[in-house]
Specification:
6 strands; 174 residues; binds 5-nitro-6-ribityl-amino-2,4(1H,3H)-pyrimidinedione; four-stranded parallel beta sheet; alpha/beta; single chain
Length: 174
């Protein structure tokens, strides 16, 4: 079906879900690692199935979600990676500072993204209970690690497409 977006003057950029030749850093919080290990497995499996090689993955474990941003920034700036996938698990029932940890993880990962220009995807599960967290880590609600990996692949591909020079437009004379 053709439509407005197919018209030649509209230069539509989209990312492809092909990770061939891409290098990724993955930062994963050890806190609640019965869940975060599953997020990691989902992310790695997704990246490999979309074309990344094992040799092009680097995994950094940090103590908890609060520490994710600093490792993500280091990878983005010095890790020779195209994107960073950030994984963690914050469960409300286990902490009174749930909101602080979750908010700092989100703010910090966003800041990495903004400061470095290297995509940093957010796969930190914030849940009310361990069961709800497990549901989002390969259970009935999918795997947020896999989702974050897909977002990273798409963003790397999109940024490459944006950087590619726009092809010269055909005119009636050419
Ligand atoms: N870190 C998490 O990733 N998830 C949590 O649920 C959590 N709780 O419950 O406290 C948590 N805390 C640790 C925090 O991320 C830091 O590692 C710690 O405060 C040391 O800086």
């Amino acid at each position: 079906m053709s439509g407005f977006w197919d018209h030649p003057p509209v230069d539509v950029k989209t990312g492809k879900l092909d990770a061939t030749g891409m290098r990724f850093g993955i930062v994963v919080g050890r806190f609640n690692d019965v869940v975060s290990q599953r997020l990691l497995e989902g992310a790695v499996d997704t990246l490999l199935r979309h074309g990344t090689r094992d040799a092009d993955l680097v995994v950094a474990w940090v103590p908890g979600s609060f520490e994710i941003p600093v490792a993500a920034r280091e990878l983005a700036e010095h890790g020779n990676v195209d994107a960073v996938v950030c994984l963690g698990v914050v469960i409300r029932g286990e902490t009174t500072h749930f909101d602080l940890v979750a908010a700092e993880a989100a703010r910090g990962v966003g800041a990495v993204h903004a400061a470095t220009g290297v995509p940093a995807s957010f796969g930190v599960v914030t849940a009310e209970s361990l069961q709800q967290a497990l549901d989002r880590a390969g259970g009935k609600a999918g795997n947020k690690g896999a989702d974050a990996a897909m977002a990273a692949v798409e963003m790397v591909s999109l940024l490459r497409a944006i950087r590619r020079p726009r092809p010269a437009r055909r005119t009636a004379a050419s």
